[in-house]
Design goal:
single chain, 71 residues, mainly alpha, two-stranded antiparallel sheet, 2 helices
């Protein structure tokens, strides 16, 4: 996690970060998972939120594109 923050700060040195324990959102559409995570983060931060982090794996070689966000 700290490596990701350091990478972002390399390009945007004055960005503020905050470690928030968010619920593990489950879903089949990555965009919806990210949006729900952003909405949950907004309840803990006073001010704008522009980045939330989530990990997914897309295997396009399968007809169902599994597992997607369910990693």
């Amino acid at each position: 996690r700290q490596e990701k923050i350091n990478h972002i700060k390399h390009f945007w040195p004055d960005i503020k970060t905050q470690d928030i324990d968010l619920p593990e959102i489950q879903g089949l559409i990555c965009r919806n998972v990210a949006l729900e995570k952003l909405i949950a983060a907004m309840q803990h931060v006073d001010g704008p939120i522009i980045i939330v982090e989530d990990t997914s794996l897309h295997l396009g070689c399968y007809d169902y594109h599994l597992p997607g966000p369910l990693v």
